[in-house]
Amino acid sequence: MKIKVSSLNKFLLNPPSTQEFFFFYFNKITCTIKWKKQLRNKVDIKNHVIHSLYFSHV
Q1: How many folded domains does the chain comprise?
Q2: Which residues span the domain enclosing 34?
Q3: Above 70 in pLDDT, residue 52?
Q4: Residue 58: pLDDT above 60?
Q5: Residues with Cβ < 8 Å from 36, sequence gap 6 or more?
Q6: What angle do CA 25, 39, 42 make, to 5 degrees?
Q7: Contacts 24+ apart (CB under 8 A), 6-14
Q8: Does 11 map to a domain?
């Protein structure tokens, strides 16, 4: 959880180029799909919510 949040904070402090942004975004989708397939614990759901909320405001 902490790792995910700190990487998101870095992302917010240093906005990437459009290409990098899309790689970052699709990476998150891929991770979310993997999480859902592997295990459904509360930490994964929290991470998913954090990223969903962030990207919905971009």
Answers
A1: 1
A2: 19-58
A3: no
A4: no
A5: 44
A6: 80
A7: 8/50, 8/51, 8/54, 12/54
A8: no
